[in-house]
Write a structure and sequence with these properties.
heterodimer; A: 1203 residues; alpha/beta; eight-stranded mixed sheet; globular; B: 337 residues; eight-stranded parallel sheet; two-stranded antiparallel ribbon; 12 helices; 41% helix
Chain lengths: 1203, 337
């Protein structure tokens, strides 16, 4: 037996049965590619003894193209994807199917981006491919994923119809379960050698050439299209034969349609995917209760075989509900519903139907984006089937008060499936190892008992301080519960972080006589008083046994640092009673040895010590006989927040998002900005404290803060009249400011994540004590209340007039208000300071096109988002289109703004005589190159609007609508290197070439950070990343050089942690450049394997080693006959090794493949030196000389443009 | 022709020139060149328990960080299946040196914990080291710890290790002991076979710009050899231990002085790093020439011939430097003032 998740199950079979695997990362399918890549890089062979070639492409479209080519050339080939990635494969899928090519694509089915992106599971993506000619086979559980991966491959090879093998994203792809493996003999028995031979014989070959991919005309295309019909007719039979053969080999028998339930059922639910598991559990229970219900699981959805469907349904069936996990807006029903309906209708008119009367069929939607689908909801569907006029086109699982589509359900309904199951829930942080410990526990229980096991892990949407809730089930019977553990159901609830006590009602989940485990620094006799009143009462009412441990103290005492996962895991086994205590402890120790044994004798010893110590430090709490606490859960957002924030944002934060009815939501995807400020997460253990006497007011701390949690403001001293006693400020230094002004640097104590970067960058040390700076970290809890009051006072201080500030200095620019604040980015994120800086400099006139990736997630993932407005209500207008099209999306914004500005000017001239002509001329000729110019233009436009209201004409009305475009708008196109270097490069290149005035910010982390650190073309040589487990063998693409070649593009390579003023200048110059600008920003990332408290050091090392040369290429200089390229960093001054040895992504290779690592290092060292010298030569070219290469090239380009 | 052989830690060596623990032994070619140039044995670079600990901690953190994710990224790096640690690398290099060189190879171990010393000591013995040099350096910075306590650390460590390792053991010491002779006797009693005098370590330096303390190690100079020569002269004949000098031995003259004072071998490092392995051959040739010129039959003949017990002025080795230096300006006895 194996304890693995659905993705690993699919990848296992796919890697065994293929020769070429083309991949591209996308959630939730990425792990399949990662496994395949990892196994190949370890030399793991396929069924035929060769190591599959795994290649990462630049996009899913690229992967599909490579798959097509490899298939046409005779290799067994596969790919893995989901969602929008699958959509990018559609064009090639038509081709692959049209050419009758056997292959299997494995899909972790996921929602499509519509009103919003969602990474979670439903069938929206796979349903869009049902016309491609691919067969579609659906798995409902990790076991089925493994089995169907094989069945699909066998059937495809035999039948020549390519197959889409899909399963529900997350619910199945990420559910860990104990499943039966498939050994090579089974695989071999399933795949007949002659099929493989036929596939190879069909390959393109100059030895026996055939032309494929011809272009056909009206005379023949149609007929040729119909040639494939016999293959589709045969395919269901082939799939069934394959399933039958599989049954002989494994004992697990599947059918195209599998019926379960009462053989004489009158009411039947039809669906496919993980939801079928929950329905099976419910049907099993209801049937035993005497209800005449049943379930039909659809396995093979395409080619759709109505005969098998009809044969599988009981003849007694009178009412059918078909459930679709997708939505087709504007259709009179979703796809599966219509297919079933058509099958029954055709059967009915045939006259040979087994049914006395044609059953009534209703269709409904459920489970979009992994929405919970529980037995209670399923029962509601069966109940609906029993009413006289059942509702058609219903929804289940939501409250639709808008269209009244939803069915009501009884939340209290339960099956008896869990009478013998042990259900456990764990509340942890992404960073405390709770999830990995739980995965480990499942393995331990799975491997040391006959029990079945299931694990599912729910993360919140933040990257810093992500909360994880683990749902674990163990029991003697197979577990079909494809839903979360519900209220009053958990036999064990663990809280791994005491701070959650004030955030979650976690004992709502606890069953009667459950065990509650709390990690708390409070002593066993005091811990009771740290609970809320509600929790205390729940412990009393449900007779919960309460245990506590100070896991962080145990970790510190035993040398484990802050790693508490083994400790909490030991507690779980010690008190849950799920295994005999001693057996469990032995098993944990064995697991520790397995994980660390080879890598660390001492780490094993420390873990053993921690395990033993844990048992001594775990205490059962004596429960008083009544609740005594007066602690209540604070509201998720303050009472002062706007109504929408209270009703929607607050409910989502509190974990009640499922209960929000449809009508509360905006129907076009628009959400209010500035909501991150409402969510006070209190993540920081320590926060910075200012010493205003030492501070020289340099402004570096607000610049580097990734979360905009430390800010500066300049204000008149008189404003201090109402200041709290502990509020700190100092008289303003410098001659740029009038006398009597004060400046403050204030921290937002509940938004700070405690990364310490502000203290790190602070250049000022106490002359008498070098360990003290002008900013110093101090524990947050004692400062929280005081600094909250100071922060609130800070917010009331007026913003300084932007016109009076010097944006060219760090000090001055940092007084601009950030309009990007408190994002959920990782602690110490290297990207957000750039984003925030742009929002400070240009936020009040900014439109942002944001490529999908980290920046779109911390920028736009609900519940709360960081983009916000200033006191006038102005702020960045932000949108995310897709991953691949961001440059084009931003260009579209520019085109619209420019067009509308042009039209506004036309109208203005048309209306000139009816308006104050001085005003019109001033507007037309306005110089908006600085803050004052923009301010004045805004005032003029306000005047214009007033005047226009008195003119009744269509032109005046139009101008009123378009007038805002007369004020400067700044378009920013932002995204990561995955977008800019790979999937979006074609578009980026086109936008650069277009010459339009857009600013492009590439947040270069040198990997696909959001999906877990996969290799991009920005990944440096020798770096270990996913899809480059053996170190990336090729160098980093030089995007800047490519862009500079256009010569009308402003290009800058920046790293604020190395030279902040150069970064600031680059932003200002990019904005000032009337044409495309490209800022490539070095962004240290958690995926580099560095502690991000060293973020600045890493930037500095990257620059000093030559890995990241700083420069600016300003086309403006060309006009003056000057060389446009200016190098801002000196020649590499430290060995490249000094940089790479500080980052795990590089130094890990020295442990795993030392010789390769050494060779990569040498090559990389040469490359950085060569690149610097090449840039230097470019920077030294004489552009004034008519005959210089550069000038000639520029001239040629100019001639071309003019021609 | 003079007999250059010497005995060190029970090993019969062709001459007293032994490259000390240094990066030179990391490179097999370099090690062979040293052997070809005449090195009579090789002390390997140190196996640092601290480095092993650091690696383990690094790996533990790495594995732990694999769990720090969010819904889209359960991890951030592929976990390597094979992993070559500092210890693996060291043992492999020891094995390679043993296979490819004919001269004895002395493994050097720099431990921090008692269990570490024993564990790694056993590993090195198993891997075929001819002897073990324990590179002990401890900065006694705890005001509660007495000088006796500090000495006991060394003694106990050696005693523990002696129970598990049968190889000859030499202790590489720091010069900062209140009583080096007493310490040497204690170590001998605890089972040491030799002493290497003295360690040179990174010293904290201050960066005047950042005000940070930065560890720094400069190459040695001949000046430093004098301290070693004094103590080897004081120890020779007083303890039944092999004696090696290390730190500041650059020239044939430096080496001759140490041998005269009583060293069994002289270690070279900085000089070889500066001038390459052939420098050892030059010294060896000069050494031979000097012995012949001065009509010595063998190294054993001259070894310890000016040690404190045999010195013309035994008290010279005991005098504090100040007096000694002043004294050197006094007139010869036969000269009238």
């Amino acid at each position: 037996m194996l304890t693995i998740d659905g993705n690993e199950a699919a990848a296992t079979v796919a890697h065994k049965l293929n020769e070429v695997i083309a991949i591209y990362p996308i959630t939730p399918a990425s792990p399949m590619g990662e496994w395949a890549d990892e196994w190949s890089s370890r030399g793991q062979t396929n069924l035929w003894g060769t190591v599959p070639h795994v290649v990462e492409m630049q996009s899913e479209a690229g992967a599909a193209g490579a798959v097509h080519g490899a298939l046409q050339s005779g290799a067994l080939t596969t790919t893995f994807t989901a969602s929008q990635g699958l959509l990018l494969m559609i064009p090639n899928m038509y081709k692959i199917a049209g050419e009758l090519t056997p292959t299997v694509f494995h899909i972790a089915a996921r929602s499509l981006a519509c009103q919003a992106l969602s990474i979670f599971g439903d069938h929206s993506d796979v349903m869009t491919t049902r016309m491609t000619g691919f067969g579609m086979l659906c798995s409902n559980s990790p076991q089925e994923v493994m089995d169907f991966a094989l069945i699909a491959q066998a059937a495809s090879l035999e039948g020549k119809v390519p197959m889409l093998h899909f399963f529900d994203g997350f619910r199945t792809s990420h559910e860990v379960a104990k499943i039966a493996g498939l050994d090579d003999d089974i695989l071999r028995a399933m795949i007949k050698p002659e099929w493989l031979a036929a596939h190879r014989a069909n390959a393109m070959s100059p030895e026996h050439p055939v032309l494929r991919g011809s272009s056909q005309n009206p005379d023949v295309y149609f007929q040729a299209r119909e040639t494939v019909n016999p293959f589709y007719t045969r395919m269901p039979g082939i799939v069934q034969t394959s399933m039958d053969r599989f049954a002989e080999l494994t004992g697990r028998h599947y059918h195209l349609f599998d019926y379960v339930g009462n053989p004489d059922a009158e009411r039947v639910v039809i669906l496919m995917g993980s939801g079928a598991e929950a329905v099976e559990e419910t049907v099993d229970y209801l049937t035993r209760q005497g209800e005449n219900v049943g379930l039909l699981k659809v396995r093979l959805y395409r080619p759709f075989d109505p005969d098998s469907l009809l044969a599988a349904l009981p003849a007694s069936c009178r009412r059918i509900a078909v459930l679709d996990r997708t939505k087709e807006p504007g259709a009179d029903g979703e796809p599966l519903y219509k297919d079933v309906l058509a099958a029954l209708a055709q059967d009915h008119v045939s006259g040979n139907s087994r049914f006395k009367a044609m059953p009534t069929v209703i269709g409904g939607r459920y489970g979009l984006s992994s929405k919970e689908f529980t037995p209670a909801m399923i029962k509601a569907v069966f109940d609906e089937l029993a009413v006289e006029q059942p509702k058609n086109h219903f929804t289940i699982g939501i409250h639709d008060d808008l269209g009244q589509t939803s069915l009501a359900w009884d939340d209290m309904f339960r099956t008896d499936a869990h009478a013998e199951t042990f259900q456990a829930m764990f509340y942890g942080l992404g960073s405390d190892g709770t999830v990995s410990a739980n995965k480990n526990s499942i393995k331990i229980i799975g491997e040391s008992t006959d029990w079945h096991a299931q694990g599912y892990f729910v993360y919140d949407s933040k990257k810093s301080g992500a909360v994880t809730v683990s749902h674990l089930r163990f029991g003697p019977k197979p577990i079909h519960s494809s839903y979360l553990i519900g209220d009053n159901d958990a036999n064990f609830v663990a809280c791994h972080q005491p701070v959650f006590l004030e955030r979650y009602d976690m004992l709502d989940k606890a069953a009667d006589e459950a065990v509650f485990l709390l990690n708390s620094p409070a002593s066993p006799d005091k811990v009771w008083n740290t609970l809320t009143t509600k929790m205390q009462q729940q412990i009393l009412d449900k007779k919960i046994r309460f245990y506590t441990i100070d896991a962080y103290a145990v970790a510190a005492d035993t040398g484990m640092g802050s790693r508490i996962n083994t400790i909490m895991q030991t507690c779980f086994f010690a008190i849950s009673g799920i295994l005999p205590r001693d057996d469990a402890i032995t098993a944990i120790k064995k697991a520790v040895e397995k994980t660390y044994g080879k890598k660390g004798r001492k780490i094993v010893e420390l873990n053993f010590k921690a395990i033993d110590e844990t048992l001594a430090c775990l205490h059962e709490v004596k429960i008083p006989n009544k609740a005594s606490s007066d602690i209540q859960l604070p509201p998720p957002v303050p009472d002062s927040a706007p109504e929408f924030v209270q009703q929607v944002t607050g409910a989502i934060i509190a974990g009640r998002g499922d209960q929000i009815p449809v009508s509360f939501f905006p129907n076009n995807g628009g959400f209010p900005v500035g909501t991150a400020a409402y969510e006070k997460r209190n993540l920081a253990l320590e926060i910075p404290v200012l010493d205003p006497d030492l501070c020289t007011q340099c402004g570096k701390c607000p610049l580097v803060c990734p979360h905009a949690s430390i800010r500066s403001k300049i204000f008149p001293k008189s404003a201090l009249a109402n200041a709290p006693a502990t509020f700190k400020s100092a008289p303003m230094r410098g001659k740029d400011f009038p006398a009597g002004m004060h400046i403050t640097y204030q921290v937002a104590p509940e938004d700070c994540t405690g990364c310490g970067l502000c203290v790190d960058i602070c250049p000022i040390r106490d002359k008498t004590n070098a360990s003290r700076k002008a900013l110093n970290m101090a524990p947050q809890p004692p400062l929280r209340a005081q600094e909250r009051e100071n922060w609130e006072f800070f917010l009331t201080l007026p913003e300084y007039d932007r016109r009076e500030l010097k944006p060219t200095t760090i000090k001055g620019s940092m007084v601009f208000q950030p309009l990007f604040e408190f994002s959920g980015a990782c602690v110490g994120c290297g990207e957000t300071p750039y984003v925030k800086l742009a929002s400070q400099l240009f936020g009040d006139r900014m439109m942002v096109a944001n490529a999908t990736g980290c920046s779109s997630i911390y920028g736009g993932n609900l519940p709360t988002t960081p983009w916000t407005t200033n006191a006038e209500g102005r702020g960045p207008a932000w949108n995310n289109s897709l991953f691949e099209d961001n440059a084009e999306f931003g260009l579209g914004m520019r085109l619209a703004v420019d067009k509308q500005e042009e039209h506004a000017r036309e109208l203005l001239l048309e209306l000139r005589d009816q308006l104050d002509t001085n005003l019109v001329d001033a507007i037309i000729n306005a110089d908006q190159s600085d803050e004052a110019g923009i301010h004045e233009q805004r005032e003029r436009v306000a005047q214009l609007r007033k005047a226009l209201q008195n003119i009744a004409s269509p032109a005046a009305e139009s101008l009123l609508q378009l007038a805002e475009n007369l004020c400067k708008k700044s378009v920013w196109i932002m995204g990561g290197d995955g977008w800019a270097y790979d999937i979006g490069y074609g578009g980026l290149d086109h936008v650069l070439a277009s010459g339009h005035n857009v600013n492009i910010l590439v947040l270069d982390t040198e990997v696909y950070s959001n999906t877990g650190g996969q290799t991009s073309k920005a990944t440096p040589r020798g770096a270990v990343a996913k899809f480059s487990a053996g170190g990336k063998p090729t160098g980093k693409k030089d995007l800047a050089l490519l862009a500079m070649d256009y010569e009308n593009v402003y290009v800058a390579h920046i790293a604020y942690g190395a030279k902040d003023i150069q970064t600031l200048r680059a932003f200002l110059e990019a904005e000032a450049h009337d044409g495309p600008s490209l800022l490539i920003a070095y962004s240290p990332c958690i995926a580099h394997g560095v502690d991000l408290s060293n973020n600045h050091r890493q930037q500095d090392l990257a620059v000093k080693s030559g890995h990241w040369p700083l420069f600016r290429f300003d086309p403006k200089r060309i006009e003056k006959g000057e060389n446009p390229l200016h190098l801002d960093s000196p020649e590499p001054s430290i060995p490249y090794k000094e940089f790479i040895q500080t980052e795990t992504r590089f130094n890990m290779l020295f442990y795993s493949h030392p010789e390769d690592a050494e060779q990569f290092l040498q090559q990389a060292q040469e490359e950085v030196l060569h690149r610097y010298s090449y840039y230097r030569q470019l920077a030294e070219l004489d552009w004034d000389e008519d005959t210089s290469i550069a000038a000639t090239k520029a001239k040629t380009k100019q001639d071309k443009t003019e021609a | 022709m003079a007999d250059l052989t010497t005995e060190y830690l029970g090993l019969q060596l062709a001459n007293p020139l032994v490259p000390s623990a240094s990066p030179l032994s990391k490179d097999l070619d370099m090690a062979k060149q040293l052997e070809d140039a005449g090195a009579s044995a090789l002390v390997m670079y140190s196996l640092f328990e601290e480095k092993i600990d650091y690696e383990e901690e690094h790996m533990a953190r790495f594995l732990h960080e694999q769990a720090i994710g969010h819904s889209e990224a359960a991890s951030f790096h592929p976990v390597p299946d094979n992993y070559i640690s500092h210890q693996d690398e060291y043992l492999e290099q020891l094995h390679q040196l043993k296979t490819q060189l004919d001269i004895p190879v002395i493994a050097s171990l720099n431990g921090t914990s008692s269990s570490g010393w024993i564990h790694y000591g056993k590993e090195l013995q198993q891997a075929g080291a001819d002897a073990l040099e324990l590179n002990v350096y401890y900065v006694a910075a705890d005001p509660e710890e007495t000088s006796r306590d500090v000495e006991a650390r060394y003694i106990n460590l050696l005693k523990d290790l002696r129970q598990h390792v049968s190889l000859p053991i030499t202790m590489k010491l720091s010069s900062q002991f209140s009583s080096i002779l007493y310490m040497a006797q204690q170590l001998e009693a605890a089972g040491a076979n030799g002493l290497a005098l003295f360690n040179r370590f990174y010293q904290p330096d201050v960066d005047l710009e950042s005000l940070e303390v930065i560890p720094r190690l400069e190459l040695s100079s001949s000046m430093e050899s004098l301290l070693r020569i004094r103590w080897v002269a004081l120890l020779h004949g007083r303890v039944n231990l092999s004696l090696a000098v290390t730190g500041g031995f650059h020239t044939t003259e430096d080496i001759l002085k140490a041998l005269l004072a009583g060293a069994d071998v002289t270690h070279l490092c900085s000089a070889l790093l500066q001038h390459g392995p052939e420098h050892l051959g030059d010294i060896l040739a000069d050494l031979k020439a000097w012995l012949e010129e001065h009509e010595y039959d063998s190294i054993s003949q001259l070894k310890g011939s000016i040690s404190q017990q045999h010195a013309i002025d035994p008290a010279a080795f005991e005098r504090a430097n100040y007096v000694n230096v002043l004294d050197s300006f006094s007139h010869p006895r036969g000269v009238r003032r």
